[in-house]
Amino acid sequence: MSWATLGQQFVNALALGSVYAMIAVGLAMIYGVLRILHIAHAGVYTAGAYLGLYFFHLTGSFFVALAGSMLLTGLIGALIERVVYRPIIPKPRIVALIASIGIFICLSDLFRILAGPYQLAFDYPALAGEIRFLGMSAPSVDFAIIAGTAMTFGGLWLLVQKTRIGFGIRAVAQDIEAAKMMGIDVDRSIQAVFFLSSAVAAFGAIMVGVLYNAVYPSMGDMIGYKGLALIVIGGFGNMMGAVIAAFVLGFAETFVTTYSDVPLSREGIAMFMLVLLVMIRPQGLMGKRA
After folding, report:
1. Model confidence, pTM
2. From CA 70, how far away is CA 86, in angstroms rounded?
3. Which of 79, 194, 197, 204 is the most exposed place for a label (fewest CB within 10 A)?
4. CB atoms < 10 A from the CB of 156, how many?
5. Is residue 231 within 8 Å of 249, Cβ to Cβ?
6. Where are the alpha helices (DSSP H) in 60-123?
């Protein structure tokens, strides 16, 4: 194994972890404020990919496709919160979970009806090549994913830590009743969480669509399951824990499948990690023991 090959695998693992982080952070944010498992996030992720492809074909501009998809996908997430979750939040959490599964199934069928059951190519030539440096080469789209994720998370951190709406989100995540007593608009804060998490998922979906040159109705299924596993591994709603877990999974999948004879698929590795960590540390990587 040469250093060049090792470097390529490192970049691949970093890009894969970035994709996982973008969906895991959204799920962790939603779990953090509402304590629900937002299964439908996988469907929202797929909607982001289709919208990105639509805007790309419509305008020919990748950046317009990114912006348009993130905006509309964010609005879809906010609409799901307003129409579906808000009326049923006072009920037992199992009700919200069942509703989320229902939305996810409905979205999957809607994608098949509107776009067909087959893969659609997301061909963006500017990211189709490779970048060579230090004797190694890696796909351009991997670097775009890594850079885009860094900028997205940087912007998200600034918004959550330095703005009034971010203060409201943090307050609601800690204690909704106390936030209400402080005069914080709880509904607005929760809706902002759904908008942001959905917009970030759309970015990840578009980059994955370009990476594999494919957009299809079930593309959010497996990454959605892994996202749910990651918020458990990270510590149930802990954003930093979810990000760390995402990169650990990205590196584990890349290096275990490349350099070992372990007879497990990438999905099998993710579920094995979940079971192992839950046995060793039930509260997750960054969670606190009850």
Report:
1. 0.89
2. 22
3. 79
4. 20
5. no
6. 62-80, 86-88, 93-115
